[in-house]
Design brief:
Number of strands: 12
Helix content: 10-25%
Structural class: alpha+beta
Number of helices: 4
Radius of gyration: 15 Å
Oligomer: single chain
CATH architecture: Alpha-Beta Complex
Order of helices and strands: EEEEHEEEEEEHHEEH
Distance between the termini: 28 Å
CATH topology: Nucleoside Triphosphate Pyrophosphohydrolase
Length: 188
Amino acid sequence: MSDVVTSGVLLRNCKYFIFQTGLNGAGDALGVVRLGGHVEPGETSIECARREALEEGNVVVDLVAAPATWSYSSVDDAFDLVRAEELPDPAPLLTASMAPDDGLSVTYLATCTSEPTPGMETQALIFLTIHQVFWLTGEGVTLGEFLGDGGLLTESAPLPRDLRLHPHGQLRALAYLVRSGELDPGWA
């Protein structure tokens, strides 16, 4: 298995899945991505996932056993989840291969009991029901439309309401795995 370069969590809190959102590099969309970041020297992928959840969401998380591990490539727009034959220990829910030889990004299932709030590195946290996960991954939704439909967001500074919410691989994988029956949406 390649080296793990980034690690994070698909976080469940009560009935919500918690993701971070903020301006993408081009400033033309709001990326919706799991809490996570780069593994520091000497740090395990689990230690990184827990640290990043604390730094980005101000929460201490409990990891949840994944029913299986699925992999995909984060290099291109093709999105094909493949169930892994061999599971790393401990098993994350997702592994994403990055550009050739750039290693892996892993994502664990996690829960928390305290309410997440944006950390210093986080522009906003978005709280998604499973129905909103399906909505965001199924059609182009702006932040204003999401909020106008009762969506929950906690911002460190106001984000543009007219920009589209762009789901990253972890959110797309969550929608796929729940729809296909591979993952129970109430795993927490």
